[in-house]
Specification:
Structural class: alpha/beta
Number of strands: 10
Oligomer: single chain
CATH class: Alpha Beta
Pfam family, one: tRNA_edit
CATH topology: YbaK protein
Protein name: YbaK/aminoacyl-tRNA synthetase-associated domain-containing protein
GO molecular function: aminoacyl-tRNA deacylase activity
Organism: Paraburkholderia ribeironis
Strand content: 25-35%
């Protein structure tokens, strides 16, 4: 599998300028940053959450973790991690675990952690485990213009800053 068709459509409709960065097969965002030789703070990962109302996506640096209590406070929703089987159904044009951050294009409320807005550039999954999209932060924020900005992430212990 290569870049998801949904992501391709989003990039095209926004006139985004980007480059594709290929890397050895990886299965976690920390592994992906290492394989691609990029700072983990600049790699955006997408975490899918759910509650009885439906699904929500959280986009944050790969070196951070979601603070559910912060998201609960900001959204008024008691969210929890979605099941892997749900990911396959919702993101049919993506490999499991390689979700691009443009979840609004999949009809999902999306929250973007403010820490990504302070990076000089951003990388993110293209829909598979061997390609990343790389773009300037301004381009990324334009692509993510329908996402709500919030503060809900914290750096994981033992993770260096970039």
């Amino acid at each position: 599998m290569s870049m998801s068709a949904t992501l391709q459509d989003c990039l095209r409709s926004k006139g985004s300028q980007y480059e594709i960065v290929r890397h050895p097969l990886s299965h976690s965002s920390v592994e992906t940053a290492a394989a691609a030789h990029i700072p983990g703070d600049r790699l955006a990962k997408t975490v899918l959450l759910e509650d009885e109302k439906g699904y929500v996506a959280a986009v944050l640096p790969s070196t951070y973790a979601v603070r559910l209590s912060s998201l609960w406070a900001q959204t008024g929703r008691q969210l929890w991690l979605a099941k892997e089987v749900d990911l396959r159904e919702l993101f049919k044009d993506c490999n499991v675990g390689a979700l691009p951050p443009v979840c609004t294009a999949y009809g999902m409320q999306t929250y973007l952690d403010e820490s990504l807005t302070r990076q000089p550039d951003v990388y993110f999954e293209a829909g598979d485990h061997e390609e990343l999209i790389h773009m300037g932060t301004d381009q990324f924020l334009d692509l993510m213009d329908r996402a709500e900005r919030a503060r809900f992430a914290r750096r994981m212990q033992g993770m260096p800053s970039s």
